Amino acid sequence: DRLKQGLTKAKQGITDRIDEVLKAYTKVDEELLEDLEEVLITADVGVNTTMDIIEKLEDVIRTKKITDPQDVREELKLIIEDILSKDDTKLDVSHSPTIILMVGVNGVGKTTTIGKLAHRYKSEGKKVLLAAGDTFRAAAIDQLEVWANRCNVDIIKHQEGADPGAVIFDAIKASKARGVDVLICDTAGRLHNKSNLMNELGKVFKIVDREYPEAKKEVLLVVDATTGQNAVSQAKSFKEVCDITGLALTKLDGTAKGGVILAVKSEVDVPVKLIGVGEKMEDLQDFDSKSFVDALFS
Ligand code: GDP
């Protein structure tokens, strides 16, 4: 299936290398654990999360008196699944109207993710509207329009340089008039400094709270898995300036270092709701820890 296919590189970078280590040993010792530690760190799991995993593994090896390296695989899988399943929450747009504010720095796959979501909800028979709230780049507006046309959904846009708040205001007005179920808003992706970002997003958030209290609000932060630990630090920065309700981790198909999802899960206290495993419309998936770990360890 697509998930398994999308995780091919991650499997090579994580699971295949774990298996190589386990095969190289006849008994479970300190050296084996050190080798596993290196695999995890190389796969962008991050130092803290890796230490945590190895500690848990040591504990379980001791309590279950595990001596066969092959038995370590299942324990490691369980520990990873345990980390990933914490706060497993799906993106829920069953409330109508729902407004989804997409935040994240440029290039992470924000527009693509908006397009994929629009396609998904439109296919489900929902009335979808897009708002081109990133007015700083003409290209961002154009690209969002390409997706709107592709998915056959309406878009509210102003000219480059316009006030993002005004775009969102108009989009809310249009949503009410047209009976929109899901309004998906792009926002500016420049992260010059925190106060600057806080200012820009703050204005948009205030308008949403004031003008659209009947809507369920989702704030999705999009981060790029191929940027490794940068994805973790971006998530931490955005969390400081706005209330993120979920993460979309894109481009997992493009990296052998898919371990970043573990770092994100354990170091950022926000549920991963979506994962991107390819460029096609159907490559945006709800994150489900069990299927994810099963695909990775298959
Ligand atoms: P934005 O600047 O954040 O809006 O980023 P875009 O949506 O324009 O995406 C940047 C690039 O990443 C584009 O070439 C997308 O096709 C690509 N992209 C986005 N999501 C994924 C994904 O899950 N997998 C892969 N392989 N590419 C993706």
Task: Characterise the protein shown here.
The protein is α/β, with parallel strands linked by helices and 298 residues long. Helix content is 53%, strand content 13%. It contains 12 helices and 8 strands. β7 (272-276) and β8 (284-286) form a beta hairpin. The longest helix is centred in the C-terminal third of the chain and has 18 residues, at 194-211. The mean pLDDT is 95. Bound molecules: guanosine-5'-diphosphate (GDP). Guanosine-5'-diphosphate (GDP) binds next to α6. It is a peripheral membrane protein.
Summarize the structure.
The protein is α/β, with parallel strands linked by helices and 298 residues long. The chain has 12 helices and 8 strands.
Radius of gyration: 21 Å
> What fraction, in percent, of the residue positions are helical?
40-55%
Mean pLDDT: 95
State the strand order across the main sheet.
3-2-4-1-5-6-7-8
Number of helices: 12
Profile the largest sheet.
Answer: 8 strands, mixed
Structural class call reads alpha/beta
Number of beta-strand segments: 8
In terms of per-residue confidence, which ranges show pLDDT below 50 for 5 or more consecutive residues?
A: none
Bound molecules: guanosine-5'-diphosphate
What oligomerization state is this entry in? single chain
How do the SSEs run, as a string of H and E? HHHHHEHEHEHEHEHEHEEH
Shape: elongated
Strand content: 5-15%
Question: How far apart, in Å, are the first and last alpha carbons?
Answer: 12 Å
